[in-house]
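Hi everyone, sorry if this is the wrong subforum. Our group has a chain we'd like a structural model of before ordering constructs, and none of us has done structure prediction before. Sequence below.
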Amino acid sequence: MRNIAAAPDLVRYACRRYLDHALHKVRCAAAMGAAGIWIEECLTDLLSPESYASLSLPYLQQLVEGIHASGLSGILYFCGDPSGKLDLILKAGCDAVGFEESKKDFQIDIEELAEQISGRCALLGNIDAIELVEKAREERLRSEISRQIQAGRRNGNRFLMSSGSPITPATSIARVRLYLHLARELGEPASVL
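Answer:
Right subforum, don't worry. Here is the predicted structure as tokens:
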């Protein structure tokens, strides 16, 4: 991170090298029949919007272009607080974006995200994997899944139910099944009379 200020040319060189490696992996994945590529941005929430725009976005855009050129979809998972960067993140051109659940002294509200994204790409849910999937009473889990599905509907139905972080090893199989059951049940379109 210090090299962003101290040695920006070195950072750009490293970004180009990493991009070349990532594009090679994309082509390999496409050759093996993959349908999409998961892109995980970690620590870029520590960048200012200006640094993100100059040091992350150009390489992310080239990666997404390579993914699309290979006939694949790109899903971006942004770790941390996206404040001040959401429009930049969307400029990358990913087919879907996902964000962590609120934690670490930042808030990420799925309803606000859906409103800001406004159907420009699919949105992944960010259900809290520990407090909700692993530990919450069924009613509380049901309520949050329903809230997130409603937010997804406001994103032009471009929504995938998801947890904001990986499901923990302490989460029982029964709880995972409950989460999946509720997501399917609550996500069913209302019947038309």
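For your construct planning: Residues 26 and 32 are 10 Å apart (CA to CA). The longest helix spans residues 8-31.
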